[in-house]
Design brief:
The protein has one domain: Vaccinia Virus protein VP39 (Rossmann fold, 3-Layer(aba) Sandwich). Helices cover about 25% and strands about 20% of the residues. It has a nine-stranded mixed beta sheet with strand order 1-2-9-8-3-4-6-5-7.
Length: about 240
């Protein structure tokens, strides 16, 4: 019998009083979503870093489509935040600037990054972009810089495959999601860009860090994730079975 955890898309939805997680395609979900539904969108889409002949993270994003849909499903006065690779940044900036008047770059700086490439500067940050309008909400009760300094996601927070899953040669030793974001980083963004009771969308939710942050901070969430195994992990986190 086929292990359902290895399936990409089963089309199921897991619902709770705090929000919903959809095992779905992000483009399909956004295309069918009503307009002006969310107060904020905070997401970490694929970086497409493998398009230069590599077989990992190699699907190029339709950033123009995503920027349009983000604007369409966002309520007036809402915020968009996307993490992106450095070579995607210009495209995201151009496409989001069609709909939003204020844009600001952001960086997650990781002081504990470990490098393996000798003769090169070690990558120790990830880029993000915040887009909004002149009347968009922003938490004025705190002071926010355009960067956060915190370590990589590790320890109990790092989601691992189930012990019985055949994942890598070192079974169970590799993280389930290779680019899982730190809960602290996401909680900072949620606090800055939304109010209690707001609903936040993450159409590329991975293992559900946005949902965990939203629940802890009194927001509602709607998350979309194509990989069914990640959907299971996100749901376990929302139910409190994992960090």
């Amino acid at each position: 019998m086929k292990d359902l955890r290895k399936q990409d898309y089963l089309g199921v939805t897991s619902s709770s009083e705090d929000g919903d997680i959809h095992n779905n395609d992000a483009y399909l979900f956004l295309g069918n979503c009503p307009a002006h539904r969310y107060e904020a969108i905070i997401t970490d889409p694929p970086y497409a870093i493998g398009i230069a002949g590599k077989d990992w993270d190699c699907k190029e994003l339709q950033i123009d489509v995503l920027a349009y849909q983000f604007h369409r499903v966002l309520k007036p006065g809402g915020n968009v935040f996307v993490f992106c690779s450095d070579f995607q940044f210009g495209t995201w900036y151009r496409e989001l600037s069609r709909y939003f008047t204020k844009l600001r770059k952001y960086a997650w700086c990781k002081p504990d990054s470990v490098g393996y490439n000798k003769g090169m500067f070690q990558e120790s940050f990830e880029l993000g972009l915040h887009a909004c309008s002149d009347d968009s909400y922003f938490d004025m009760g705190n002071y926010y810089k355009n960067h956060t300094v915190t370590g990589k996601t590790s320890g109990k927070e790092r989601i691992m495959p189930d012990p019985d899953e055949e994942w890598t040669k070192g079974k169970g030793s590799k993280a389930l999601h290779p680019t899982q974001k730190s809960l602290k980083v996401i909680k900072d963004l949620v606090t800055a860009l939304s109010k209690e009771g707001d609903t936040i969308l993450d159409p590329f939710s991975g293992t559900g860090t946005l949902g965990v942050a939203a629940k802890q901070l009194g927001r509602k969430f709607e998350m979309v994730e194509y990989g069914f195994r990640n959907h299971i992990a996100a749901w376990d986190r929302i139910l409190g079975k994992q960090v």
